Amino acid sequence: MEVNDALIRQLGTLARLDINPAESEEIRQDLQRMITFVEKLAELDTANVKPLLHMTADTNVLRNDEVLPGISREEGLKNAPAHTGEYFSVPKVIKK
């Protein structure tokens, strides 16, 4: 695949980048090296290679969910700096 000015302009537009002519040549060389590398990878024979689903054979060790006793509303509001009888009172953050 050939990297040309049209491709660089298109990529710049898609990425919303303003690419000047000085940067364009450097980007062209970088893209060409990346494409060459990917094309080289495509030459590998992967017919007998199993897909890698997980990096290791380890599995997640999860604990069982246990219902623990909660606290009452009064206990929850006990140390609140401001509250009504049932809810925390907080400063208004949305101004209309």
TrEMBL record:
Catalytic activity: L-glutamyl-tRNA(Gln) + L-glutamine + ATP + H2O = L-glutaminyl-tRNA(Gln) + L-glutamate + ADP + phosphate + H(+); L-aspartyl-tRNA(Asn) + L-glutamine + ATP + H2O = L-asparaginyl-tRNA(Asn) + L-glutamate + ADP + phosphate + 2 H(+)
EC class (word): ligase
InterPro entries, per database record: Asp/Glu-ADT_sf_sub_c, GatC
Documented EC number(s): 6.3.5.-
Pfam families linked to this entry: GatC
SUPFAM superfamilies: Glu-tRNAGln amidotransferase C subunit (SSF141000)
Keywords associated with the record: ATP-binding, Ligase, Nucleotide-binding, Protein biosynthesis
Summary of subunit composition and partner proteins: Heterotrimer of A, B and C subunits.
Protein family according to the UniProt entry: Belongs to the GatC family.
Role: Allows the formation of correctly charged Asn-tRNA(Asn) or Gln-tRNA(Gln) through the transamidation of misacylated Asp-tRNA(Asn) or Glu-tRNA(Gln) in organisms which lack either or both of asparaginyl-tRNA or glutaminyl-tRNA synthetases. The reaction takes place in the presence of glutamine and ATP through an activated phospho-Asp-tRNA(Asn) or phospho-Glu-tRNA(Gln).
Protein's recorded name: Aspartyl/glutamyl-tRNA(Asn/Gln) amidotransferase subunit C
Organism of this sequence: Chitinophaga alhagiae
Gene from which this protein is expressed: gatC
